[in-house]
Write a sequence for this structure.
């Protein structure tokens, strides 16, 4: 069995000279320790890295930090290529839209669509926000006047209130999906061809499931199935 001997050099932490240390070694271990070169352990930041490298080499181990940093640099370089591509920046929602017809329409009606033209993008956001708050006003008015499609006071009151946290959640997620952090998550998920194909398939099936749920909820509100 391989033995690695590390010697403390700081007297404040019990460090001893090698001769003194060997005098305190039990007799049955003296021969073993005499054939091993002790690696000095330095606590000063300037020398500690040398001690760590020596210990890793003695243990026949490799420091994975440099390799991890290289992998991270490769990922960042890949993201920069995607971001600077002449085709345009590939975002998480762009990838889902390309692989799911249903999700493409859900994103459009849900206020997540992104246009390259800044004026069109701002106009789209404004129209969505205006229609959203128009719906909220109608729901709150409906609680008071109990007009169509009024079904149940507590149900409609909950529906009206839900517009407030839902808008905050929509705004937060819409900001997040436009950040480089979200694009980096996408790059990590699709850098392997097999994983990218699986994700594309999940987008297609998941899109139709979500669309079916949305259509059911709309039908429920207008027909009063849950009333």
């Amino acid at each position: 069995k391989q033995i690695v001997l590390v010697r403390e050099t700081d007297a404040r932490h019990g460090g001893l000279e090698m001769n003194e240390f060997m005098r305190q070694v039990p007799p049955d271990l003296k021969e073993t320790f005499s054939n091993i070169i002790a690696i000095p352990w330095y606590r000063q930041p300037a020398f500690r890295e040398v001690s760590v490298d020596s210990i890793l080499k003695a243990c026949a181990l490799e420091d994975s930090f440099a390799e991890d940093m290289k992998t991270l640099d490769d990922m960042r370089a890949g993201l920069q290529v995607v971001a600077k591509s002449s085709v345009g920046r590939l975002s998480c929602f762009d990838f889902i839209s390309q692989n799911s017809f249903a999700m493409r329409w859900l994103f459009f009606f849900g206020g997540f669509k992104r246009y390259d033209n800044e004026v069109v993008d701002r106009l789209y956001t404004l129209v969505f926000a205006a229609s959203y708050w128009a719906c909220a006003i109608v729901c709150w008015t409906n609680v008071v006047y109990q007009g169509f499609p009024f079904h149940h006071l507590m149900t409609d009151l909950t529906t009206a209130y839900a517009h407030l946290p839902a808008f905050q959640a929509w705004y937060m997620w819409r900001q997040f999906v436009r950040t480089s952090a979200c694009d980096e998550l996408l790059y990590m998920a699709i850098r392997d061809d097999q994983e990218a194909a699986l994700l594309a398939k999940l987008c297609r099936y998941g899109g139709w499931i979500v669309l079916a749920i949305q259509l059911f909820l709309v039908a429920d509100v207008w027909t009063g199935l849950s009333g």
